[in-house]
Amino acid sequence: MEFQVPAINLALLSPVLIVMVTGALIMLLEFFIPETRKGWYTWLSLVGIVLAFAQTATMWGSEAGTFTPVGGQPMVLLDNYATFLNLIFLITGALTILLAISYLRRTGLDRAEFYMLLLFSLSGMMLMGMANDLILVFLALEILSIPLYIMAGLAWPRGESEESAMKYFLLGAFSSGIFVFGIALTYGATGSTALPQVLTGIANGGALGLAGAAFLLVGLGFKVAAAPFHMWTPDVYEGAPTIVTAFMSVGAKVGGFAAMLRIFLAALPEIGDTWVTAVAVLSALTLIIGNVVAITQSNIKRMLAYSSIAHAGYIMIAVAASANSERGLSAALFYMFAYLFTTLGAFAIVMAREHQLGEGLQLNDYKGLARRHPLLALVMAYFMLSLTGVPPTGGFSGKFYLFRAAIEASSAGPDLLWLVLIGVVTSVISGYYYLRLVYLMYMTDGDGTLVEERHPAVVTAVAVTVAFTLLLGFMPGTWFDVTRQAVLWGGRLLAGG
Amino acid sequence: MNAFGLAPLLLIFPAIGVLFNTFAGPRLIRAERKTGEMYAGWFASLMAILAFLVAVMLYFSLRAHDYHAETVRLFDWIVVPSAGFTIPWAIQVDTLSVTMMLVVTGVGSLIHIYAIGYMHGDPGFHRFFAYLNLFLFFMLILVSGSTYLMLFVGWEGVGLCSYLLIGFWFDRVNEQGKVMNADAGRKAFVVNRVGDFAMVLAMILLFWAFGSLDFGAVFGSAVDLFAHGEMVTLFGMEMTVGAVLTAVTILFLLGAAGKSAQIPFYVWLPDAMAGPTPVSALIHAATMVTAGVYLMVRSNVLLEIARQSTLDGVAGASLLGLSGPDWIALTGAATAVLAGLIAFTQFDIKKVLAYSTISQLGFMVAAAGMGAYVAAMFHLITHAFFKALLFLGSGSVIHGMEHGHHHVHEHDHEHDAHHKAEKFDPQDMRTMGGLRHKMPITFAVYMVGTLALAGIFPFAGFWSKDEILAHASTNHGSIFTAVYILLTVAAFCTAFYMGRQIKMIFFGSPRHEAAEQASESAPIMTYPLIILAALSLLGGLLNFPFFTESAYKAAKAAHSFGINLGLEHWLEHSITAFALTEEGIVHMPHTPTWMQVDVALISTILALAALALAVGVVYRKRPQTATERDPLQGTPIWWFAILPFEWFYMHTVVPAFKWSARWLAEVLDGAFWHDFVHDNIIRDLFVGFAKFSANVLDANGVDGLVNGSGRLTHAVGAVLRKTQTGYARNYALGVFLGTVILLAYFIFAS
Amino acid sequence: MFSTVTIDWYVALSVLLFTIGAMGVLMRRNAIIIFMSVEMMLNSANLAFVAFARHLGDLDGQVLTFFVITVAAAEVAVGLALIVTIFRTKHSISIDELNVLKG
Question: Of A51, A494, B252, B666, which one has the greatest count of Cβ atoms within 10 A?
């Protein structure tokens, strides 16, 4: 057997490599940087992310693949879709680090491994959007997850943090076992792991391929916290340090969707109604469970965990719609973009209320906050409105595009109007728990305060999240055009774009 | 002269006011209370006055421009290049929108000034004015928008301001420890959401049917399609324009029923009186609640096409045999009577006025539904004058009573403990009496307002109410007859409850120490009252009718109408249905242009009789003391007026529902289910359901809907929550079962 | 004799291993045994990879096995570290003791 070296173009991977190398650098420097100079880690990782961001931005508009075996498909794709997602991840990483500075210092968790693990996880997320081969999807998934398992337990020996890490790890490993088995089955059915070949093969691969497809959907459904694979989410989110919760609620979820959408994108137009219906039903279940159980919560992190489950349900509406609507994928990208800012912004306020680790996290701790911190309470109220989907917020625009895509898709494929209806009704339900927080802040009395120290980094991060939520609310058209660009390949729309 | 370019200032001035009072207000007031209040209050008032001046300039520009509507485009709001679709942010300057702008900013300015006096010393002074300016901002967006979407933005915005201002004193707690004001705000908000949902549906229908939300484009395309008898495709179905527009008008009715407090959503408005009195006057009487009427008048083309489609028997263009506008007219008329009756039974000075507002809004909605758009706007304007006057007057009375109460306290130290224990409600009319000597200015202006509201010649209310009644009586058809009878009854009720009110407040002798010690309010409060009183007296001149048919014909021949029918000639440039009628595309009902003497006589006699009955007979000698029963209490009228709420629902629907729920729960429990299911599903859900029904349907109305549906969802959530056991193995089981089901689905579905 | 063992047998064995692994995760309380069960699930996939690679005459599947093994090793490293940490505070490795967060 003749061995041929596949074509490799490392320049395409440069953003991922920058992030990875920065992480490794921090790991090494930990031995040399004195205890009193912990700020260096922060700035170093920020520099890495900014460099990667700049590098990614220059790639906007380019389309290429690399790690192409002879006669095969490239394993890594770099198109606008991947670039856009990379930008989302890098923004998430940068905002998380900005928010982390004062939080970690205050809670005594300011350790090098936080930054290191964050960067490693970030590189995994970036690979999720670029992977065009199931085995690379699996590797990316693990690179994304394993650092998160550790980060969830960062606050050891706190019981909650340890429990959160353990549960996340156990269930994560279980679901990746299922995912790998799915890869094995689809490989057996189609003789390949390259996404386009696998997915076209599944259609005529018989039961083996279909079983594999189901397992793949479970693995990704777990990552994005879709019901009934969502049950780890509330416990893990509650127990993990809040900064980690913030990072994972955006990064891990968008990462999961990056792969899920890529699979849909690669499999189109052969994708069958079976997939669409399966995703639609999961979406409906996720919407209902997420929103209804969120009502009963009294801990804000838990409430936001259920809220993040619910938002996975909304994004899945767009995933289901992308099979038959031209705007499904871009609607999903737009929604995730808006979700990123709103969620991180909300968590920023949650962290400001958390004077000490695990303290001030009850909803009742927010009573009367508006009187003492009118501006921040207003910001929080605005984020809550955005999460509910009230105009003019990014959350509203996201829901608008998403529902429109689903309505469009209904005329060309399986009916999704029922799903839209569920989406609308559950949005109304969600208003109940989001606005309850607003009610508590504005209409009741209490003695809770936010931390006095206003670190410039935190102020910057909050300002950015507010600005983008406003921007996406007031000028959604401009940004939707960007997401439209993100699903272009070779000047024409990707299938399902 | 052309001042159209100034139109954006209309929105900018109130916006500046909001920013000023949000950021500078707290500092000013903290630095020096008295001057700070002056700056904050007068700055906000100045912004309102400037907006009024802009509206006035727009008025003159329109006149100079031969009444041609002008659209001032500010920027593109929603742009979807791929679909070639743009929704601009644009201000429509036409005679209808300018009319609304003048009312909103004019009455708004007076109320701003009044509020400087009324809110004096309140810790939230600057917040109040920031909200008030914010309200103006959104209300002006509502009336000036050139698309339904902009109208809706304003619609939601004023709803938000209403919520904030009803709950302005959100920390006030009643005896049971409930935050009554915050609850009232929430109730208003939630009730309005239901109506707003209908609005959203209506907009979706319009957009799908006509491909635009722009007023001009929607109306133009509706007329085109209707005139050519073409169909539109909705949800893959061919539908007639008439059917679509019937649905749209019914949805508009629901939307307006929320915002303008009509059956079945009127329940929020009486509770909304928890807000400060200037808010009740501005938002819950003069302007915001009329948004539903504005919506109807603005959509006159759609209403007329819907009416014509029903007359032509177009497929699907009716609901239970009646056209959309017929439903609107009947709903308005029924609301007018029902609210008028309920007003008999109220003791709170502001609640009487609140029900009166609901009743008068019923007149306007009925007028719009009957095609009397000019009459509806006419009544809207005069009502804004005299109802603002009455509310501000009642505020002055409340102020006086509170003042009197404090006075009693200061001079009564030995009885201090006694007085603290005693509960005093400055809004309870039973504790008033004889105030005409203590508060002469307030009394005089209140009388003007009362006579205007009761429809006594020659006050403003007489002319506008009469135009609606004349319209109903001169057009033929059972709907018009029914509306005419209902509105005449409502007019009688109006005069009666107002007679009752002035008797209880101003006449007789004081029934409480506070009333004995009451004193007149400050000039900053009384001057706006006097201006409003003048407007209430002269408002009829706006659309002064001809007295005889021959006078009308002579004027028409001479093309000179003088001051007569000013509003009609002004508004006809915006009410496109007039032009359509001339072209013969639709046949809208005709409003008589000269006075209908018989109608005017009947309503005037009835109003005078009702006033006389209230003041001179029923309440002549009573009540003598604050605790005495109302003379009507226990009589059939009393029971009839409160029947729809308490008696009917509490004694029929609620027990039946409770009984069946309990029966189901017991049977199912005994026969099938073990304790877990019983406790967590059956009991919680059915008790939730029973409570839900009880709360929704009882007198608390929709306050219960919030808690009830919340509780229901909460119960479901609590059950689902139990699956989250905390054991990782159970979570893995969830993943596993999900996998198995997906697997089975994938294999068997393909 | 050897030729009678067709690909179907390998797939059946791999499915069996996968199921045993999954059941182990669902039923056992000891965290270490649960990890071993997860390992068994991953290795059932490895078995399937190799069997399919042989069946298809394709090298890819065999290479994939190494990736899976590497990842599994990384997972175990993290998992054991977590167990040790938790054992220090709780003096137990039963996952049912981790039951503070719920609802």
Answer: B252
